[in-house]
Amino acid sequence: PVKGFSDYGTMLEIRDIQYFADGRSVVDTMGSRRFRVIERGTKDGYHTAVVEFMKDTIVEGQELEDLKGLHERTRSLAVGWFDNMDQDVKVNVTSHYGSMPRVETEFWNTWSGPAWAWWVLAILPLDTMAQQHILSQTSLKKRLEAIGRILGFMKRRGGVPS
Fold it and tell me: Minimal CA–CA distance to 29: which of 96, 94, 92, 126?
């Protein structure tokens, strides 16, 4: 059966709208909360859905210490990858997505982990299925490991966009 849209998504918050005289508009949004589609429907020709918001599994003790180390290693890889991009590509990325977000004080205690990881995920050259797989994870450890594997693979292949 045709679904019409993905099983997972991100609630968008509208930050700004620019209207043009010819009727077009540009909407600036930022993702806020992930969700999983529970039920699909249509109303007046538009897709609708009942969704369940997703929250990361919270870890403690040694698992948390291991997660913090993984976080630092993965962020370091991401910063190095971004810093080594061609300057024109970096300008285009930051003009579209903004700068890489700072690390939250208690990133492990948030609904969806550190914002920088989502920023990196948005700019990585991944197909929709790979992005959806990472988006669907409620384990920050698994998401960071996936991002680390992708960045490591790109580093080995010399995959710095230019």
Answer: 96
Question: What local confidence, expressed as pLDDT, does residue 2 receive?
Answer: 66
Spatial CB neighbours of 97, under 8 Å, sequence gap ≥ 6 = 119, 122, 123
Residue 93 has pLDDT above 50, yes or no: yes
Contact residues for 9 (Cβ-Cβ < 8 A; gap 6+): 34, 35, 37, 51, 135
| Residue that the structure tokens 């197909």 belong to | 127
Confidence of residue 159 (pLDDT cuts 50, 70, 90): low
What is the reported pLDDT for 4? 82
Residue in this structure with the two tokens 């285009």, named with its chain if needed: 92
CB 6 within 8 A of CB 26: no
Distances (CA, A) of 77 to 86, 145, 155: 16, 11, 9
User: Residue 113: CB partners within 8 Å, gap ≥ 6?
Assistant: 56, 107, 140, 143, 144
The phi, psi pair for 59, rounded to 5°, reads: -115, 160
Distances 65 to 61, 72, 76, 101, 162 between C-alpha atoms, Å: 7, 11, 17, 22, 36
Tokens linked to 91: 């300008």
User: Residue 109 carries which DSSP code?
Assistant: G
